[in-house]
Automatic annotation (TrEMBL):
InterPro entries: Cyt_c-like_dom, Cyt_c-like_dom_sf, Cytochrome_c_Peroxidase/MauG, Di-haem_cyt_c_peroxidsae, MauG/Cytc_peroxidase. It is found in: Periplasm. GO terms for cellular component: periplasmic space. This is Cytochrome c peroxidase. Heme c 1 binds at C111, C114, H115. Its main location: periplasm. GO terms for molecular function: cytochrome-c peroxidase activity; electron transfer activity; heme binding; metal ion binding. Heme c 2 binds at C258, C261, H262, M331. Its cofactor is heme. Keywords: Heme, Iron, Metal-binding, Oxidoreductase, Periplasm, Peroxidase, Signal. Binds 2 heme groups per subunit. Binds 2 heme groups. Residues 244-356 form the Cytochrome c domain.
Amino acid sequence: MVIMGSTVTKKANTKVNFLIQFYLILTFVCISNCQDFRVYYNDNNQFQYLISIQFFNDISFASDLQQRAKNQIGSLPNSPPGSEDDTDAKIKLGNKLFRDINLSANQIQACVTCHPIDGRSAGMDRQTTPRGTFGQLGKRNTPTILNVGFNSVLFWDGRRNSLYDQAIDPFINPIEMSLSSESELIQKIQNDPSYSEYFVRAFPSNPNINLHNVRLSLASFERSLVSNSKFDDFVMGNLLIFNRQELEGLNIFLEVGCTNCHSGYLLGGNNLSKLESSFLYNPNDFGKFEVTGDSNDRYLFKIPSLRNVTLTQPYFHDGSVTSLKETIERMNEYKLNRRLASSEIDLLIVFLKTLSDKTKSN
């Protein structure tokens, strides 16, 4: 579990970085306008002078990009909406439920099986599609659970819009954990005496083991899974943290229209879009249409967040593409406003790596 630092720490770091950058630029301006110093450079250190010029240009480029990224994307908040009522006790109970293999039909599978979060794992199993408790092949690729608390659209077909509503679904889904009913889930929890103390601490005024409290606890735990990325450090003011390639990749990302779909501080995750081209994936999945029956929803799928995207292959809702470069090439053909060169896609990938949680590598 990764939780971002406090707002106070962020503000302090931003102020320190601003002062460092200010004094570096001030020093450069002073020495560049000092006649004796310029003569010395002209005679002895022209190469160093050119490096100083390049450094100044890089800082200026970074500053411009930082402001654009802040305006067009923004940084990830410290905590998701709704987390103000999340207590440590609720989070611990949710964590226990999330990891409990006894809450599946085969008693060897848990939520964490498809959403591994320990160590360097980035919250998804990296399979094309997951397998259920009895080897059933899932229909869609497993998304990462990191930052899921910021999502207002859940599942590829958008059939849920809150963690509370979604929390029980995997337990009773016949191709996931395969319990026969919500009642069976509650009975399994009630039959385990180790849960009693957890519920008392999480819900001291009403420690009943019921669906409502189970939903609240799982949602609390899932909201605690928040990333901490290099990109957020940059947007918050650390202009020196990005190298030139990362800056150029970000510039391409902003210029070619990636944010038209991958918008907001999640860079996606909260809207749906049409994917009608057979070039992109196997078109036998009809998306939201399978939930609503509305012909307008045919091939309508959730736009995934790009946070941690370099750690969560394979891609698309059917997990049909393992290469991020190929994924970008396909979306470039389908959605972007100009054709990207191979070298530009490479720079985009360099930038996308900065969206990864700094503690994860998968």
